[in-house]
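Entry type: protein chain
Record version: 2
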Amino acid sequence: MEDLKKKTFLTIFIIISGFAFIFAIFFNVQIYHREYTGILNNLTRMRNLTIQKHEPLNKEMKPINDDELRNRKVMDYEIYTFILNDNNDIVDKISHSDNAISDKILTKAKNIISSNNTSKVKIGLLYLQSYAYNFEDSNSLTIVNISNTRNMLLTNLIISLLLISLGEIIIYIISKKITEWITKPVLESFNREKEFVVNASHELKTPLAVMMASIDCLDVNKKNEKWINNLKSESDRMSNLITRLLDLSKTEYLPKENFSKNDISMIVEKRALTFESLAYEKNITIKTNIAEKVNIFCHKESIDELVSILIDNAISNAQENSKIKVNLTNDKGEIKLAVVNKGNPIPPEECEKIFERFYRNDKSHNRKNGRYGLGLAIAKNIVKAHNGDIKAYSKNGYTTFEVKFKKMNINEKS
């Protein structure tokens, strides 16, 4: 259920955030394109006007008096025209705004001319540039001071980023609300199902206990021995199933107030010793590599159950005359428990499914081993309740069940 809520929340959050980013990008691109086009048009217009004034007049051109270029004003930009002779010396300077030509502009013009960078329109990235120029004609140079444009674009960009940051908070809240609204029917159905399982299990326990007690009181003889043994066997299976269902329900939620600091090293070592006799029956050896005094805030009984499930699962699926490795490490604050056995590999497509309730990779659903596909589901619930991760994988003939507990579990109650 938590996975569903997380996936739903992330999907909604990413979609809304994506639209917000696209809008911000579109807004800034539009303004950038408008300013870039305006600068380019002014550079081209001034160059054409300069060529008209200084080149021999064509028949189609109307005569232009000497003051037309000088009196040409531009409101939005600071534009300056420099007229050059054949030696690239500046012979005339014209400001097309109310600002006088400063030494800084003059120095900039001389640097451009000395670079012999003719036949070029240079605007560059407006977020970084202070000047743009047109030096396509070697007899004239047009410079535009775009400092104000750069500052305006940067301001818009910063404001957009700030609005997006603020918007992300709002989007987060909205996504949470929408997620709760979408998942509410699923959550209610899930809770009803869980409540039904618990209630049904409790209701079945009493009549089952009566049946088992009654069976024990029956007189066994050659005629009824077979049937009584069948009743006992199935009653035991039913009792075990009900117990596992209740265990599964309990691990759905572990109260944090029941958590305490425990030495997980001792828990793992004790469980490994307990299962040695069971492993011995299959000629299996359990090898342990357990770091000492690994402490963790946890629900002790649940961690004990987790280790038991993983070792029991490894024994059940291990080849005879093989070894099972139980490793516990604490590397830079990350606690890792790994149980490794040699046996039939888990197909990659089933590595996630095996943690689902009632899932068994034995497609024949063989009942001889008395398993119901609940053990690994219980293990996953326990790990999730401790803010950890569990995964399974097979490699080179070995299957590994690996549990990682995050650093926050070690020194803090959570």
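Comment: The two ends are 20 Å apart (CA to CA).
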